[in-house]
Design brief:
single chain; about 140 residues; mainly alpha; about 55% helix; globular
Length: about 140
């Protein structure tokens, strides 16, 4: 798989996940005392905590992935940002102090999101930093 294909696939998946977060039935009701933005707060597919802001972030990463898939350098930059961003979100999801695991009450990052974000970061790191075609100037 090329880095362009990575960006395309991640873009499509992020768009789908962003849409799923808005569909009742695919997202079950959920509450958490440290999440202050409760609009759309639920568990996507009954597992992954999301809210309206979380869904918008998924849609933005999805649109960016589709756009980035058109050039190798843009796709490499996208992969690197996915890697670093989702690694940071993984660590934040592990820290309840200062409400980091809810992004200061704005976006839930706890529960199953932690391992999912770690997997996304690892795949992004592979395509952004490790693959031979990742050495295109980004």
């Amino acid at each position: 798989m090329t880095v362009n294909r990575f960006a395309l696939v991640f873009g499509i998946v992020f768009l789908l996940v962003g849409v799923v977060g808005f569909i009742p039935g695919l997202t079950t009701m959920h509450s958490h005392p440290d999440v202050t933005v409760t609009a759309g707060l639920g568990l996507a597919l009954g597992l992954f905590p999301v809210n309206i802001l979380h869904n918008v972030v998924h849609l933005l990463f999805g649109a960016w992935g589709l756009a980035a898939s058109r050039s190798a350098s843009a796709a490499v930059l996208y992969a690197k940002v996915v890697a670093v961003s989702y690694a940071l979100l993984t660590v934040m999801g592990l820290i309840s102090a200062a409400r980091l695991y809810t992004t200061f009450g704005l976006i839930p990052l706890y529960g199953h999101d932690i391992w999912l974000h770690a997997v996304l970061a690892a795949v992004g790191a592979y395509f952004g930093f490790m693959r031979r075609d990742a050495h295109v100037r980004a």
